[in-house]
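Worked example

This section walks through a single chain of length 227. The input is the sequence exactly as stored; nothing has been trimmed or padded.
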Amino acid sequence: MMTNPDDQQPPGTAEPAEPVTVLPLGPWPAKESTLRVVADRDQQQDHSGRPVPPVTSGGFPFRYKVRLTGASVYASTADEVLAVFIAGYDPRPARGRDAELAQITLRGEHCIGVIVHHVAQAMLAGLLSPEEERTLQRSAAYGTGQDPITVDECPRWEHPEVPMVLMGDLYAAEYGRFTPPAGNVIMLWPGRADRYLAGLVDLGLIALSENPGVAAAPPVEVRGVGS
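Given that input, the structure is written out below as tokens.
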């Protein structure tokens, strides 16, 4: 959802609650990065009360801002953002096939955890019928030796509140082996860092502001929980 910092609320209306990240944090990355955490109490503001984003040690603006409860994390790349949530993930990976495959493996494992947690939350909330529970559990059955769920097992997932979340890379057209169910289905794509990050944001797990031009102006695009 796009927001304009110049928009003002009508008189007498409350400010809308700011989206906050709900995806669990991992251990703080041990490797060098430009990542920077700014607590709300330390956040500088301009004359109109708007947050002034920090810059890197080299004087460059950050591309990403992740909103947490009581703080914000600033990052320069999608890998840096993901390193905040994925244990052992390299915020500044080396070049080369081995390093790339290691990152993809960690994103894939994290993606499976996100999908399994999504199914568990829907079940605990009592939002599914017994048949829907079985179907959604089947959709999360990764690492079991089974092929991913296909249109043959579930032609269409229609639940209005609970989407079916799948690992999109397994259904990629270039492989041509599997056709996913239609309907209320969301794909996560851990094969690429930027695409996986975008999927987590669109799923409502990370509240992210992005400055695509990496300009000096504060980021204005806000997506995530509550958007």
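What to look for: The radius of gyration is 19 Å.
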